[in-house]
Amino acid sequence: MRTDMLIGGEWTAGSGSTFPTFNPATGEVIAELPDATEADVDAAVRAAAVAFRSPEWGGLLPAARARLLLRVADLLEEHADELARLETLDQGQPLAVSAGFSVPNAIEHFRYYAGWVTKITGVSSPLSVPDADHRTVREPLGVCGLITPWNFPLMILVWKLAPALATGNTVVIKPAEQTPLSTLRLAELMAEAGVPAGVVNVVTGGPETGRALVRHPSVKKISFTGSTAVGREIGAECGRTLKKVSLELGGKAPSIITADADIDAAVQGNLLGGLLNSGQVCAAYTRFYVDGKRHDEFAEKLAGAAGSLRLGDGLHPDTHLGPLVSAEQVEQTARYVAVGREEGAELLTGGGRPGGELSAGFFHEPTVFAGVGQDMRIAREEIFGPVLAVMPYEDPEELVGLANDSEYGLAASIWSRDIATANRLARRVKAGTVWINMMQGLDAAAAWGGTKSSGIGREMGWEAITAYTEVKSIWTSHI
User: Fold this and answer.
1) Active-site positions, per UniProt (predicted)?
2) Is 468 a residue whose pLDDT tops 90?
3) Does this model's pTM top 0.85?
4) Which of 312, 309, 319, 297 is nearest to 271 (CA)?
5) What is the mean pLDDT of residues 253-279?
6) Which DSSP symbol is given to 311?
7) Average of pLDDT values for 366-377?
8) Closest Cα to residue 85, out of 97, 75, 98?
């Protein structure tokens, strides 16, 4: 298990102190890791800048860079079981999620962007200036800082890393301090694949490490996934220094269940969509707008299904829901459950921490509230835990206004047998992604990102290529 940082092709313990990473299923320390100082971050950025200009990377032909990314994907696939278990050990997500979703999605992204490397083209433009031609080319930005979250550490890193490398950039990665282990193992595999020294660097640490990376004058772009509060700070700092920035931030996704919806299908889809990774998903379905005539039926069935889920160590094959990532996340969830009760929501299931053999871990029961009001905090604030709020609506004409009455706009879900109604709602709901009659779906080809306080910019698809390149205009005189 790698616990050192990777700077300029060398593994180093750095020059600072250390911090622990925990197994959230047991509360035990897995390992101690370096807490990178400003000097460590500077060394990593300098190494990335040198690699960007090097012939081994900067002079690499597109076809060779594509083969390199494909080799990385092959190594990830060869080590898929190991990576999934490491992700589950450090983050807590059940193996069904890490092995069935997170790692395969990361592999898919490397292969998808390997395909783009040889197809990144500019355009030629018809000019009204006589005796001149004009064309554009897309060029890499330089050193990119990638700051990743703790909920899907490996997968979300690759959403950033694969297009950054496909377009010829070099990177300094700062993983969340709660979940650094799969990032370090990925960096090790990339070196094994033949990625030149300094192209991929990893510094570990907390908020101060991230601030040093954001403020470094040689970093040309920051890509951050995490909380809206931290995203605002990063956006402001990047604005002051005119760095490019992509922010994928918080969410409070509405799920609309119309009167004609298949309630059993909606319950199953929303159960999975709301409680995937124990609710630690930025696009988790967390506020359910259900036609008043179907509210009680939906709420009771959702609560029954949630209450039947098995909590446990994610490494156990029978586990449905693993732990939350940290003791702090359990405490935050418990506070919101208490607030929901105080504000008058009806608790249907859950609401507390399990005892017995799970008491040492960071577990919280899946919790469902019914009869939730639009202005209750559990309906408006991101909890990032297994807490679901069912809300009745009476007038379909008010439905879009209710769904859009949020500072967030990352994702939404609509459940209806009438596809015309579903598509009309999808067009009117303010969200970066809308899923109709399904739980969350993600694909490397489908753009991903939010509106309002859920972020700036897009990941995945061609949009990620544009996010890691800038356009240069080239004019040629005929004379």
Assistant:
1) 248
2) yes
3) yes
4) 309
5) 97
6) B
7) 97
8) 98
- Cα separation, 471 vs 479, in Å, equals 25
Residues 135 and 187 sit within 8 Å (Cβ to Cβ): no
Where are the alpha helices (H) located in 249-315, listed in sequence order? 263-275, 295-307
Predicted pLDDT at 1 = 86
pLDDT of residue 392: 96
* pLDDT of 166 over the 90 cut: yes
Distance CA 43, CA 144 (A): 14
Q: What is the pLDDT of residue 479?
A: 85
3-state secondary structure of 166: helix
Task: Name residues whose C-beta falls within 8 Å of residue 176's C-beta, 6 or more positions apart in sequence.
Answer: 148, 149, 150, 153, 226
E strands within 242-401? 244-248, 253-257, 285-291, 346-349, 367-370, 387-393
First to last CA, the chain: 63
Beta strand 253-257 with 411-415 is parallel
Average pLDDT over residues 235-255: 97
382 is catalytic: no
Q: Quick check: 430 pLDDT over 90?
A: yes
Backbone angles phi, psi at 198, to 5 degrees: 90, -15
Which secondary-structure segment (H or E) carries 447? none
CA distance 247 to 408: 13
What is the model's pLDDT at position 138?
A: 97
pLDDT confidence bin for 399, thresholds 50/70/90: very high
Closest listed residue to residue 86, CA positions, set 152, 1, 187, 9: 1
Check pLDDT > 80 for residue 16.
Answer: no
Q: Hey, CA dihedral for 403, 407, 409, 410, is it positive or negative?
A: negative
List of domains in the chain: 5-249+454-477 (3.40.605.10), 253-443 (3.40.309.10)
Q: Which residues lie closer than 8 Å to 27 by C-beta, 6 or more apart? A: 327, 360, 361, 362
Quick one: 359 exposed, middle or buried, by C-beta within 10 A (0-12, 13-18, 19+)?
Answer: exposed
Residue 374 has pLDDT above 80, yes or no: yes
Average pLDDT over residues 238-255: 97
Report the sign of the C-alpha dihedral through residues 165, 450, 381, 278, in that order: negative
Using CA of residue 67, residue 155, residue 146, residue 234, what is the dihedral sign? positive
Q: Which residues 6+ apart lie within 8 Å of 248 measured at CB?
A: 224, 225, 282, 410, 448, 449, 450, 454, 455, 457, 459
Residue 91: which of 30, 136, 37, 49 has the closest Cα? 30
Considering 87, 108, 177, 248, which one is annotated as catalytic? 248
